[in-house]
Each structure stands twice: as C-alpha cells, then as structure tokens.
Design a protein that fits this description.
InterPro entries: DUF1275
Number of helices: 8
Helix content: 55-70%
Number of domains: 1
Distance between the termini: 36 Å
Structural class: mainly alpha
CATH topology: Growth Hormone, Chain: A
Keywords: Membrane, Transmembrane, Transmembrane helix
CATH class: Mainly Alpha
Radius of gyration: 18 Å
Number of strands: 2
Largest sheet: 2 strands, parallel
Shape: globular
Length: 235
C-alpha cells in the first residue's frame, strides 16, 4: 500500500463536504432512474456509457441512448467548467448558483416525464440529454471546488484510494461516506420508485438540490465563513 495525501488536505472546507454529499445522494437517485427508465444507460457514470457505446457500435446493444448521454454530458462539462459562472469568485457562489441550475434542469426533466411518460422516444431522449447535461455541469463545478475525495458522480478512484492508500482516519471516513452516500441514493431511488412511481426520484432529487443550494447560500453568511469560502483561481 502507498501513502498519499489528497490535494488541499490542510485547507478548511467548512460545510462543503456535507453539501457535496447531498449532491452525491441525488446522483445515485438520478442515475438509477436513467438506467431503469431511459434505456439502461447512465447520465453520471460515463465509463459505463463508453462500454455501452462500444457495444452499440458493434451491434450488441442500443446506440442512440449512450451517444446522447455522452454528448450531453460533454456539453454540460464544457459549460460548467469553461463558460458558466467563470466570473464567480467565491466557492459558495459557484456551488449555490451551479446547484440551483442543476436543480432546475432536473425539475424540467421530471416535468417532461410527468407530462409525456416514458413510452414516446422524443421525451425520453430529451430527458436523457437534460439529465446528462446537468451531471456534466455539476461535476465540472464540483472539481473547481477542490474538495478531496468527494467527487459526487464516480467512486472508482475513491474505492481505489480507500483500499490502496494509507491515509488518516478523517480521510478514510470521508471516502467511506462518499461511497455509502451514492449507494444510499440508489436505495432511496428504488424505494421511491416502488412506492410513488418512476418519476418520483427525479422530483425528490430536484428538491434535494434546491435545498443544497439554499443551505450553501446560508452557510456563506455565517460568521467565520471566510475560512472556507475562499476566492477561486481565475479561469
């Protein structure tokens, strides 16, 4: 095993790790809906989508769904990382506005499915594109915050670091929380689907993201927030 310290380990992140865990919970819920209802494709786990795309290109699986998801995710990542909110100088502003926008996209997707259902191809592909775009957007913004071991969308690196590196107790706890929260999102989505219907996890995710945005705004106004709400590097 190797010893490694994640970036920004010595810096204060205040409430950001907890807020990002809320986003991680919503990610598990949204990816569950996309896999079960939108053609067995992901909107956050792009590694799986690349495999599905390869299978589609060889005629062993559907091609449109993974193609739409990957392209939309790329557009969202470009918007979140290079264009949108690039002038926002504080971490809290970036997370609050970025998460509010994410909640809006998820809400539109949930509304489309509520109105048109899952049967017609065009709303299904439109919803897939909206959700994948929102995930690319979200992860690009999360990366700019530079909170170690909280990625909100993927856990491959987190699992590798959990078992492959010798780290402090707090670091390992954060990694376990990240993995467990994503799993809880999947479990919660499955429970909501069984009890309230297939669109309910999306509505719940939108509410969670909206709450996260408000909590970020309020946290930035508390005394001592300057310790974690530092200025971001210019883009």
């Amino acid at each position: 095993m190797t010893r490694a310290e994640p970036p920004d380990q010595g810096r204060s992140h205040g409430p950001l790790p907890g807020l990002l865990l809320i986003i991680t919970l919503s990610t598990g819920m949204i990816d569950t809906v996309s896999y079960l209802e939108l053609g067995q494709v992901f909107v956050a786990a792009m590694t799986g989508n690349l495999i599905f795309l390869g299978l589609g290109l060889t005629g062993l699986g559907p091609l449109p769904a993974p193609s739409v998801s990957i392209l939309a995710y790329a557009v969202g990542a470009a918007c979140g990382g290079r264009v949108a909110f690039s002038t926002l100088s504080r971490r809290s502003r970036l997370l609050a506005w970025g998460t509010a926008s994410h909640a809006g996209l998820v809400g539109v997707a949930a509304l489309l499915l509520t109105l048109y259902g899952f049967d017609a191809p065009w709303p299904r592909h439109a919803v897939l594109a909206l959700l994948a775009l929102s995930m690319g957007w979200q992860y690009a913004i999360v990366r700019r915050l530079k909170v170690p071991d909280v990625t909100t969308t993927v856990v491959t690196t987190t699992i590798t670091r959990l078992f492959g590196e010798i780290s402090g107790r707090e670091t390992q706890r954060r990694r376990l929380l990240m993995i467990g929260t994503l799993l809880c999102g999947v479990l919660l989505s499955g429970l909501l689907r069984r009890t309230l219907g297939p669109v309910s996890p999306l509505w719940a995710s939108g509410v969670l993201l909206g709450v996260c945005s408000v909590m970020t705004y309020l946290a930035a106004r508390r005394p001592g927030a300057e310790r974690w709400n530092r200025t971001l590097p210019a883009r």
